[in-house]
């Protein structure tokens, strides 16, 4: 993985108890990169917490999907920032499925943050999540329908975890 200035201060993997990253941030960049996620990332790094954020850690010229998958496997804690357009992104939904898979196989911690969205909308694909899933379902073949069902199950699992609901903050 490429090293960035923000991760160099805490790049020692010996502090991660066998993991390459203490924390993996899953978020929709357009919604929160410059706001909540940006501030959270800066504060985690300032406290010496080795944190994966896609724009800082992805290897230039590398295969994004495999780099993200590897980073998820190499992380101990996952913070999922559910925002209005999170479900619009197939990348976010595929990350979420991988995170939930790691959570069930390993002793990982998953912390959902519901950023200006209702946890019930995440759990039941209501509101903007419903709109996103209707769009994903357009012209879906059997394979795509299976993928959509997997995404729905991952959202339900994550939304049933104890987390933080941030409204108007």
Automatic annotation (TrEMBL):
Catalytic activity line of the entry: NAD(+) + H2O = ADP-D-ribose + nicotinamide + H(+)
Keywords in alphabetical order: Cytoplasm, Hydrolase, NAD, Nucleus
Source organism superkingdom: Eukaryota
A Pfam cross-reference name: TIR
InterPro entries attached to this UniProt entry: TIR_dom (IPR000157), Toll_tir_struct_dom_sf (IPR035897)
GO biological process: defense response to fungus; positive regulation of programmed cell death; signal transduction
GO molecular function: NAD+ nucleosidase activity, cyclic ADP-ribose generating
Xref: SUPFAM superfamilies: Toll/Interleukin receptor TIR domain
A cellular-component GO term for this protein: cytoplasm
Acetylation listed as a keyword: no
Entry keyword Aminoacyl-tRNA synthetase: no
Cellular localisation: Cytoplasm; Nucleus
Every TIR domain range: 19-169
Entry EC no(s): 3.2.2.6
UniProt record similarity statement: Belongs to the disease resistance TIR-NB-LRR family.
Protein name: ADP-ribosyl cyclase/cyclic ADP-ribose hydrolase
